[in-house]
Amino acid sequence: xxxxxxLKLERExxxxxRGLWGLSETRQIAPWDWRRGSRAAALAFEQAPNGGGxxxxxxxxxxxxxxxxxxxxxxxxxxxxxGDGVPCETICR
Length: 93
Prior knowledge:
Elements: H1 5-16, H2 31-47, H3 64-74
Helix pairs in contact: 2-3
C-alpha cells in the first residue's frame, strides 16, 4: 500500500475510540473480518459434509469474530445463551 492515509486514520480511530473501535472489545468486528465473514460462511457451507456449514454451537467456532458473524448474520441465536448480544461467552470474553 503506497498511501498510508487510511492506516493513519485507522490508528487515530482506534486510539480515540471512534466508530467500531468505540465498542466494547467483545462487540468489535474489524472491517476486514466483517468483509471476510460472508465469504467464509459461503466457503464453509460448500466444504461442509452433507452440504451443511451452518454452525450452531460454540464448540464449532474458531474465533470470536466467527461467532459474532454467525450470531449477527446467520441468526444463530443459540450461541447467545444469556441473550446479551455476546455470543459464545467462553470465546468472546
